[in-house]
UniProtKB/TrEMBL annotation:
The keyword Transmembrane applies. InterPro entries: DUF112_TM (IPR002823). This is DUF112 domain-containing protein. Residues 20-442 form the DUF112 domain. It comes from the Bacteria. The lineage of its organism: Bacteria, Bacillati, Actinomycetota, Actinomycetes, Micrococcales. Keywords: Membrane, Transmembrane, Transmembrane helix. The keyword Transferase does not apply. It holds the Pfam family TctA.
Length: 507
């Protein structure tokens, strides 16, 4: 098959000593950042984005492949050992994983994560290899109106459907769109919201926004509560991280069920792996009730950990396919990866496979290589990563602040970017303070300019006729699905509010 030939060519480009070194470095750095509480996989990509700008594109994206999956494993490590997941996608894994750790099975839990990450990522990446060309063909039928509908779908799905509060989600979307509007308006050439500063004519760098919101915002949040929050109890991962045959047989069906949940969600702009991981965890919980599993909810069930972990990595794998083939970031981490492509002057989408085919297939090949390397380094060294959790918070977050400032300044050498970084960090702090989600901001910053451009193109083609926005079966379908999702989401929010009111009224 043609895909296999192209993938073999990608392996030929990726399997060079220097590229293998970049994958290894990316996996190590991604895991190290992901392990640290409050940072996570999205933060790993954001923090290490400036580091790759001195590399040529192929080497940079091969390194990102390691960072991408390495950060996901790190998310779960801090959740299991510290009961503090590095990212919301690891929350479902934390429930049974931390119970296993408290009952003396920390090493087994980490092994379950490592193998689950490998299986989920391997199956999802294989699906991407075989179906990415199909996605590319589908994308070629998209015009300006269809891309605008897709962007609106992503905006509202992430801000209104996935977020706990519709108002907070829409507010986050507004913040992101406001940041995206700063700079020169492409069609007219006039400046917008630049305060007369030439440094802002090119807009606010995505690097400044992501590092400010994720890294500096978290630093401010931790600093404001460092004396209020009790220190979490760390559990050491004693022994080697491995599973015996009986444990493997227990976990394998759960890994496969989790992968089945996660793979489709990577193609949907639903904000990340939160939904499939909780669906996978809920399914294992129901199955545990049927089989009367005494471990589930008490000492920790290996199945309850295996399923959400595989789901998270399967979602990440197919999200890369949606990003490459459609140019659509379906999670915060994918949005930052899209920013990385744009920094190198490339736009993911159907034409990327034609214009930069060698890079795309080398990146897909490096995802497989990265998964293998992650298993090799995380199985024997899981307990080593746990040592990072013992770093005192004031040293840890001071180091993150310095690294963030140096990384942003290294990209642009502009003092203004440092002031913007602090300002956006304070915005991130206030968003955490009032429980406003961060993902809609990142998606709006990335997709906002595209949505505006495609809307103007569509209206230019139709000479101002708004009917073009709902003039094709694709746009009608997207808006219909979005409307149904919004209605269901509104019903769920009303039910939760009613249940909360009744709980307050009943003594």
């Amino acid at each position: 098959m043609e895909q296999l030939e192209l993938l073999m060519g990608g392996f030929a480009n990726a399997l060079t000593p220097i590229n293998l070194l970049w994958v290894l470095i990316g996996a190590v750095l991604g895991t190290a950042v992901g392990v640290l509480p409050g940072l996570g996989s999205a933060m790993a990509v954001a923090l290490l984005l400036p580091v790759t700008f001195s590399l040529e594109p192929t080497a940079a994206f091969i390194m990102f492949a390691g960072i991408y999956f390495g950060g996901l494993f790190g998310d779960s490590t801090s959740g299991i050992l510290l009961n503090t997941p590095g990212n919301s996608s690891a929350m479902a894994s934390t429930f049974e994983g931390h119970r296993m750790a408290k009952s003396g099975q920390a090493a087994k839990a980490l092994a379950t994560c490592a193998i689950g990450a490998f299986i989920g990522g391997l199956i999802a990446t294989t699906l991407v290899v075989f179906f990415a060309p199909t996605l590319v063909k589908m994308a070629t039928v998209f015009g300006p109106a269809e891309y605008f509908a897709l962007a609106v779908f992503a905006f509202l799905a992430i801000s209104a459907v996935v977020s706990e509060s519709v108002i907070r989600g829409i507010a986050a979307l507004g913040i992101g769109l406001a940041l995206a509007l700063v700079g020169i308006d492409g069609p007219s050439g006039t400046s917008r919201f630049t305060l007369g500063m030439p440094q802002l004519f090119d807009g606010i760098s995505v690097i400044v926004i992501t590092v400010g919101l994720l890294a500096l915002g978290e630093v401010f949040h931790i600093a404001s509560r460092i004396h209020r929050d009790p220190a979490a109890t760390q559990i050491e991962a004693k022994g080697r991280a491995r599973l015996n045959l009986a444990d493997f047989r227990k976990a394998l069906p759960a890994w496969l069920r989790g992968t089945a949940f996660g793979a489709p969600f990577g193609l949907i702009p639903a904000g990340g792996a939160e939904v499939p991981t909780f669906l996978a965890y809920g399914t294992e919980k129901q199955l545990a009730k049927r089989r009367n599993d005494p471990e589930f909810g008490t000492t920790g069930s290996i199945r309850g950990l295996a399923a959400p972990e595989a789901a998270a990595n399967a979602t990440a794998g197919t999200a890369m396919g949606a990003l490459l083939a459609l140019g659509l970031p379906t999670s915060a981490t994918a949005a930052i990866m899209l920013a990385a492509f744009q920094q190198y002057g490339m736009q993911p989408g159907p034409l990327l496979f034609e214009r930069s085919g060698d890079l795309v297939w080398a990146l897909l090949a490096s995802l497989f290589i990265g998964l293998v390397i992650l298993v090799m380094i995380n199985m024997p060294f899981a307990s080593v990563w746990a040592k990072l959790l013992s770093i005192p918070k004031h040293y840890l977050y001071a180091g993150i602040t310095v690294f963030s400032m140096l990384g942003v300044y290294a990209v642009s050498s502009a003092i203004l970017d440092l002031w913007l970084l602090i300002a956006i960090g304070l915005i991130g702090f206030m968003m955490r303070r009032y429980n406003i989600p961060l993902a809609p901001v990142l998606i709006a910053v990335i997709l906002g300019p595209m949505a505006e451009t495609e809307l103007r193109r569509a209206l230019a083609v139709s000479e101002g006729d708004l009917g073009i926005l709902v003039g094709s079966p694709i746009t009608v379908t997207l808006y219909a699905v979005l409307a149904a999702a919004l209605v269901l989401s509104a019903i769920q929010h009303l039910r939760h509010r009613r249940a909360n009111r009744q709980a307050v009224l009943v003594p």
